[in-house]
Amino acid sequence: MFNSSNPVFGRNIFENTARDFTSSNTMTVKGTMGKALLMLALVVLGASYTWKMFFGLETTNAAMGWMIGGAIGGLVTGLIISFVPKTASWLSPIYSILQGLFLGAISAVFEAQFHGIVINAVGLTLAVAFLLFFIYRTGIIKVTDKLRVGIIAATGAIALFYLITWIVSLFGGNTSFMMDSSALSIGISVVIVIVAALNLLLDFDFIQKGEQAGAPKYMEWYGAFGLMVTLIWLYLEILKLLAKLSRRD
Q1: pLDDT tens across 96-151, in order?
Q2: What crossing angle do the helices spanning 29-56 and 183-213 adopt, rounded to 10°?
Q3: Percent of the chain with pLDDT over 90
Q4: Domain locations in the chain?
Q5: From CA 220, how far away is CA 112, in angstroms rounded?
Q6: How confident is the model over 66-73, as a mean pLDDT?
Q7: How far, in Å, CA of 12 to CA of 19, rounded?
Q8: How far from chain centre, in Å, is Cα 195?
Q9: SS3 labels along the chain
Q10: What Rg value do the Cα atoms of the chain yield, rounded?
Q11: Around Cβ 63, how many Cβ atoms within 10 Å?
């Protein structure tokens, strides 16, 4: 019932926290969304630091160092939260800032090449997120077992695709199609953006099911963390897609 293609939301996550369900202080959708907004604000805070650093220095080495540190730190904290959900309440803010440092620098790299691309990517990401939330809450699209399985399968296929292309590149294979402006490359990006967006439906459903199951309060942070993972993925994919389209102009 609670399965999601988001690796943060594992199949047994509510079962593993069942002993905490007796608490009267339980998870709510409102509380989770509030924490997600706080995490988003921290991402923006971290991003603004490396963004200003990138455009304010004669050399970008310092910003690149923060970008790498943020990426590695975000990966480590994200893995810890995924395996130990109770740490989400204090590690999620740290994760947000670290990811912000990474996103600010990588966004600045794209902005330097394509002026105005970042604000468009941010706007589209937020628009897609609000649209999917509206669609889910109004029941326009219901998260059925078939839909869930389809999204999970598509997400797994994308992960496998990225892994294969990475391995091919390590052995000197040509993977330029991943970032060029060909019709194939743009088509791949469009499909990935759609799948990433659909993952938001599963994330919203997971959070609502957590409220219905009476999950412990700290799971609000865990739910917000999982939602942020999807939003960051969606933003990066939209950013890449817009870059490919800009190269065709």
Answers
A1: 999 999 999 999 999 999 999 999 999 999 999 999 999 998 989 999 999 999 99
A2: 140
A3: 70
A4: 23-247
A5: 37
A6: 93
A7: 13
A8: 12
A9: CCCCCCCCCCCCHHHHCHHHCCCCCECCHHHHHHHHHHHHHHHHHHHHHHHHHHHHCCCCHHHHHHHHHHHHHHHHHHHHHHHCHHHHHHHHHHHHHHHHHHHHHHHHHHHHHCCCHHHHHHHHHHHHHHHHHHHHHHCCCCCCHHHHHHHHHHHHHHHHHHHHHHHHHHCCCCCHHHCCCCHHHHHHHHHHHHHHHHHHHHHHHHHHHHHHHCCECCHHHHHHHHHHHHHHHHHHHHHHHHHHHHHCC
A10: 19
A11: 24
Which of 10, 6, 13, 11 minimizes the C-alpha distance to 158? 6
Structure tokens given for 231:
């939003």
Tokens encoding 186: 């743009």
Can you tell me the mean pLDDT for 169-195? 86
The letter for the amino acid at 32 is T
